[in-house]
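[agent] plan:
  1. take the single chain provided in the ticket
  2. run structure prediction with default settings
  3. attach structure tokens to the ticket
  4. add a short note for the reviewer (M.T.)
[agent] executing step 1
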Amino acid sequence: MKRLSPVDQVFLWLEKRQQPMHVGGLQLFRIPDDAGDHYVAGLADSLRSQTEATPPFNLKLTSKFGQAGWTEDKALDLEHHFRFEALPTPGRIRELLALVSAEHSHLMDRERPLWEVHLIEGFGERQFAMYTKVHHALVDGVSAMRLFQKMLTSDPDQRNMPAIWSMPRNKKTRDDQEELSLWRNVSHMLGESGKQLGTLPGVSRALLQTIREARNHPVYQSIFHAPPCILNQKITGSRRFAAQSYSLPRIKAVCRASGTTINDVVMAMSASALRAFLINQDALPTKPLVAMVPVSLRRDDSAGGNQVGIILASLGTHLSDAAERLDYIHQDVQASKARYADMTPEEILNYTSMMLAPASFQLLTGLAPRWQTFNVVISNVPGPSEKQYWNGAELTGSYPVSIAMDRLALNMTLNSYGDHIEFGLIGCRRTLPSLQRMLDYLEEGLTELEKAWVH
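[agent] step 2 finished; step 3 output follows
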């Protein structure tokens, strides 16, 4: 038996009926031009034949002497984990998103390995989809994205590719990868006490500087206390998923004209969408919303090492002008990055963990409902820049499906693919009615930025 790490155990503690703790992805494919009518059914038969699962897909929860851990499931029932389904007529994107919304609402059976793969036909003309979900205790969101990417190829002629659950695993552990999870920051701080104690002077200096800024500049007050918002109510177990692609060249054009980054622009798009959504609900706070945002802090061209930090970014939702809002966000993010400039990776890890401690306490215990550290999660994960294929089928869209939580009813996760940015929005169906309107608001936000900076 392999013991669960403390943070993996946290994901199991957090899970309840209204708060499933799995991450997922929706991928859209175009059937090859030379394929017959039964191409997708043939794929399903091929996947069914791959009955040998490799780690982590062959692991199930167990308990020994009161200690939770992972053990190999020697009687894995592939029919439970892999489902071949067809959309109801007329097979539009609406029906596909409804299916993903329903499936993402369901808890998984803890007596089995915690993953599912849904191969979906009947979507449009010569298209099909795949929806995958994996428990966050088994893989984190970044690892899941890498697993999805590993099952793809840039070769359109490659066939007989393994299923995601049967791919050979490398020996690189999750701890060696760049980590974007607030919980892993907290657990890392608690788990390496000797090394972490050495960071206290630097972390203390940074926290004192942040406190001084909060006292002297009202904008920094939101670092410690986000405004009350309908996004931060208790939620139900029912989910609504919305997804859309947006042009990366358009976003880059705004970046060049405004002197900002892609992350700044997608945050400004998100801020504009949130502002419009909340105005239509007559629920826009007078103070700016705060987002928890993972950001790259890499200062060179190296590939390895943990150079990612988590910032609490003010979204400028109190500003009506799109250009002012983008500049506001850019300045706020730059100020947050500047706090990390002289810190070691360990100091960055501990600083973010301590900043997020109130959010961690509230999510774990529910005992501080009035202390809202941030209102929404906005996460941007880089994806492949070149066209990808799976068994000859071109990948036309890849959308992350993340986690909504009590008092964090909306999660906005996005990834790049080719010349697009793919947004995946997951929210509580009751708390956030008409969530799909956010997709139009994101487009309107990008159009506003183009009018302000490009045209």
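[agent] step 4 note for reviewer: Residues 173-180, 185-204, 218-222, 300-307 have pLDDT under 50 and may be disordered.
[agent] ticket updated
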